[in-house]
């Protein structure tokens, strides 16, 4: 029995291993490899010239176009790119993004566009995916508005910090740690952290609050106090009525 079972088991194990093991091959000018556990296909086209039409046929879930001398985001409108979750465009010469959409990639979760030449960002809609924007040439602080609630990496950009600008003050008041952790300001030929560069507005944060928000807070607090007082009153009234009011005899 053992004599037959052992080789059979080993054979079955081998077949399973070969099926499950990640495969690597060369297609469309890129290295294509599968990743576990769902056997997703990834294309690593780093430092090579990819055939995009060909790649679109593969049903990829990640695409690495880093260091491929791109000057703009390539055409990614083919529906074959729909399942891509991760796009790597780092180390290119991309100077602008038209919007936050990357062709037909509807399931995109992360884009790495670090080490490019981006000088501005789309500022219509908020960014909803994770993005590495480090080491670009971003400098206009109005570009920060769509990023403020997103997961972004911004190191390696030197911002033109307008400390006295009302938008900047507002962003600082609402998201102080975002500003302090992500923004490095240009100062003459040097760089200075936001907190140091704009210490005047930081020192005066308490005075930045517009009267409207103060008024609405006062209103909310008053309503809560009123509610608590009336609840206590009603409870006490009920308590006294129950125990101390004369009961009808009968
Ligand atoms: C390309 O990017 C993928 C993920 O985006 C990464 O796993 C891979 O190591 C990268 N390749 C190179 C050569 O950097
Ligand atoms: C970007 O463009 C410059 C000038 O055209 C060139 O010298 C440089 O090698 C390019 N860099 C990349 C990463 O393609
Ligand atoms: C993207 O490409 C760069 C350069 O090839 C690499 O260092 C990085 O690990 C890649 N992956 C991600 C997730 O950015
Ligand atoms: C993005 O790519 C750069 C290489 O240009 C790499 O150093 C960095 O770690 C990548 N970012 C992330 C979040 O993986
Ligand atoms: C910012 O504005 C205030 C008054 O509005 C002024 O006193 C201050 O000097 C300004 N600071 C800078 C850095 O321009
Ligand atoms: C303002 O901030 C600077 C730097 O953080 C600090 O040295 C200074 O004492 C502060 N001034 C006031 C009035 O709080």
UniProtKB/TrEMBL annotation:
**Highest taxon above the source species:** Eukaryota
Entry keyword annotation includes Oxidoreductase? no
Q: Is-annotated flag, keyword Nuclease?
A: no
Task: Give the record's GO biological process terms.
Answer: signal transduction
Q: What is the first-listed, main subcellular location in coarse terms?
A: membrane
Q: Which UniProt keywords apply?
A: Membrane, Signal, Transmembrane, Transmembrane helix
Membrane protein topology class: Single-pass membrane protein
Got a GO cellular component term for this one?
Answer: plasma membrane
Q: Which residues cross the membrane?
A: 218-240
Its localization reads: Membrane
GO-annotated molecular function: signaling receptor activity
Record's signal peptide: 1-20
Which PANTHER family does its entry note? Answer: PROTEIN TOLL-RELATED, TOLL-LIKE RECEPTOR
Protein name per the record: LRRCT domain-containing protein
Per the UniProt record, the source organism is: Drosophila ananassae
């Amino acid at each position: 029995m053992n004599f037959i079972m052992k080789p059979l088991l080993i054979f079955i194990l081998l077949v399973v291993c070969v099926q499950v093991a990640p495969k690597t091959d060369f297609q469309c000018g890129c290295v294509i490899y599968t990743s576990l556990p769902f056997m997703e296909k990834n294309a690593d086209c780093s430092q090579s010239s990819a055939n995009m039409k060909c790649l679109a046929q593969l049903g990829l879930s990640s695409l690495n176009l880093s260091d491929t001398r791109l000057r703009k985001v390539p055409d990614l409108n083919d529906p074959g790119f729909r399942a891509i979750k991760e796009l790597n465009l780092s180390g290119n010469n991309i100077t602008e993004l038209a919007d936050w959409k990357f062709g037909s990639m509807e399931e995109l979760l992360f884009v790495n566009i670090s080490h490019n030449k981006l000088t501005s960002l789309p500022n219509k809609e908020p960014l909803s995916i994770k993005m590495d924007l480090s080491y670009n040439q971003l400098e206009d602080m109005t570009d920060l508005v769509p990023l403020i609630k997103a997961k972004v990496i911004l190191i390696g950009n030197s911002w033109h910090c307008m400390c006295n600008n009302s938008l900047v003050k507002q962003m600082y008041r609402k998201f102080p740690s975002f500003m302090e952790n992500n923004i490095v300001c240009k100062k003459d030929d040097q760089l200075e952290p936001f907190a140091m560069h704009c210490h005047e507005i930081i020192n005066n944060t308490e005075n930045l609050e517009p009267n409207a928000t103060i008024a609405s807070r006062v209103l909310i607090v008053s309503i809560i106090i009123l509610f608590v007082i009336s609840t206590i009153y009603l409870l006490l009234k009920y308590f006294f009525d129950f125990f101390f009011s004369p009961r009808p005899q009968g």
